[in-house]
Amino acid sequence: MTQPAAYINDEDTPKQDSTLKVVPNTKKGRPRSTKSKNAILKATNSLLLHMSVQELSIEAIAKKAKVGKTTIYRWWPNKTAVVMDALISQPGIQSPLPTPKNNTEAIIMQLDKLIRMLDGNNGETIAQLFSEAQADEKAQKIFSGTFLTPLLDAIEFSVQEGQKAREFRGSLDPKMAIDLLCGPIFFRLMSRPADLNEEFRETYPKEAVRLISA
Amino acid sequence: MTQPAAYINDEDTPKQDSTLKVVPNTKKGRPRSTKSKNAILKATNSLLLHMSVQELSIEAIAKKAKVGKTTIYRWWPNKTAVVMDALISQPGIQSPLPTPKNNTEAIIMQLDKLIRMLDGNNGETIAQLFSEAQADEKAQKIFSGTFLTPLLDAIEFSVQEGQKAREFRGSLDPKMAIDLLCGPIFFRLMSRPADLNEEFRETYPKEAVRLISA
DNA sequence: AAACTAAAACGCGTTGTTTCGTATTTTTAA
DNA sequence: TTAAAAATACGAAACAACGCGTTTTAGTTT
After folding, report:
1. Each residue of A8-46: pLDDT tens digit?
2. Residues A160-165: what's their mean pLDDT?
3. Superfamily of the domain at B103-212
4. Residue B129: how many CB atoms within 10 A of its CB?
5. Contacts of B79 in chain A (CB under 8 A)
6. Which of A124, A181, A185, A187 is the mutation pick for testing B, counting most B CBs within 10 A?
7. Burial level of B60, CB count in 10 A (0-12/13-18/19+)?
8. What are phi and psi of B13, to 5 degrees?
9. CATH 1.10.10.60 for the B1-94 domain, yes or no
């Protein structure tokens, strides 16, 4: 499966990344402040309740977190990375799924989880990150690597397993299947986010999996 | 059906709009320069071949079109409106469809046309406008009013007609049908635009209409 | 006379970077 | 064992660069 973005480090195991951010690979000197890091992520989530990703500025985060801008720029390559980190640092956002009894159920559970994640304020933020990624290559890499690709890979895996097991139509291109399954969700997120509600969450996943069934 | 955005005027029939732009309602004095208008739209399209909507600035348009910024701001409320106008001013972008023999065919033709429009540079631009609309209410109004709503209304109309004629499943919520039909297209546009190619255009519309068929 | 035109300059706010003096931790060496 | 040195972190402040929408100016077209 996909690795987490390399600029996200465990507190004690810094790693290297060629494209995103150069992280010191020694342990000399003063270690970074966990307090500052947490304050930054917390401030980011707090500010995102009242403004868009685009409106959010590094300056505002620094001010709210009572932290220097330098500290932020030292640890994240850009705003997208900070916001992405803040998102996934929220408790409950990456709750594991129970074991499905077949691939149909697996798909349904994954779609249900996705819709839950996109319902509400986090959904707005993710839509804005997705948007920002359209024109900004760095943002694109971070958004894809941290969020989109892992998500789609997991679904593609279930699709392929389901095709092997003859639960799903084998003639269907897996990429097409992903678009059929996820496209409507993201489209609704971006065009009528208010309709991404409980009713949709209860009806859509079953409907969607029907579309790819054998 | 939906009206075009009111800031888009015929050369000789200026209209009023409360929200977007106040347009003079008399015919006294010097009329606006058609040359300037065309130069602005042409310069916008030209610049968009090499940069994103976000990178594009009103200043750059004015410079390229050899026009004062004042002239642009007098006739369009913001960048989104200029870009939207430039897009639809392109020849062939709003080619009328031949008369379909039933609603199934109507849907297929509409989807085919949409995919054609989104394939290539215009697709990138539309994705960027869609993105910009996520966080900017003015951009949202212009994008929806000029592009998205008319498109979706037309498809919804065909869906409902098809349901009356028992071509499509009557149990399906029309909004859901629209998401099923258009979602995958826009999702592919924003996640893997290179895959919005001829093969997709030939396979997807037929696949999609199958999903809502009775 | 009225409404337009291009061009230039304006103040404002935001951006990412750099510089500053200081704090904390590890390494070195007495 | 302990104390100085080296390394890296920290927050605050100042920086230049940029695009924004507005205003001013002087000239043009109907």
Report:
1. 333 333 333 333 344 444 567 778 788 889 999 999 999
2. 97
3. Tetracycline Repressor, domain 2 (1.10.357.10)
4. 23
5. none
6. A187
7. middle
8. -130, 70
9. yes
